[in-house]
Amino acid sequence: MTLMDGLGLAGFVIACVVAASSGAIFKPGAWYEGLAKPWWRPPNWLFPPAWTLLYCMIAASGWLVWRKAGFSGAALPLAVYGIQLVLNAMWSGVFFGLRRMDLAFVNVSALWVSIAALIALFSPIDSLAAWLLVPYLAWVSFAAFLNYTVWRMNPNAPA
User: Which helix (H) or strand (E) is 87 found in, with range?
Assistant: First the structure.
């Protein structure tokens, strides 16, 4: 690995750490604990390790595409990569910070679309990069369903 490759990888890792930090800032807390939740909801302790693994895969995926095509050769895919990171970072603030389950569902739906698009855009450049995003899409699919279910179970939840 060259110095430039290492710096590029560090950049993708830092971008994911920044996105992940919203989850550390906007935590579930008493408001979320007071909501009705489905029986199949995973325990809160499962989310940090799951997201840590996913963020590592997201960073590696972006880095592989950048390494193979560069910013100029993958401008659109890497722009979509940035968009999905922003949407990802926004969700915790919308759901836990603003306590807007409805807007959080819109956000997570847009995130899902951006990840699906990203897989399609990464695939012709680097198939491993695309496959690294499949667990992320699966997890966000589950998270979207959980978001929707909690929202519907708490129609009069205080914000």
Answer: helix 75-92
Show the tokens assigned to 138.
């699966």
Question: Which class is domain 3-153?
Answer: mainly alpha
Token pair for 45: 């302790």
Asked if residues 136 and 122 have their Cβ atoms less than 8 Å apart, the reply is no
Residues 65-117: tens digit of each pLDDT: 999 999 999 999 999 999 999 999 999 999 999 999 999 999 999 999 999 99
Closest listed residue to residue 77, CA positions, set 60, 138, 69: 69
DSSP 46: G
Question: Look-up: residue for tokens 């995130």?
Answer: 111
Confidence band, pLDDT 50/70/90 cuts, at residue 128: very high
In this prediction the pTM is: 0.94
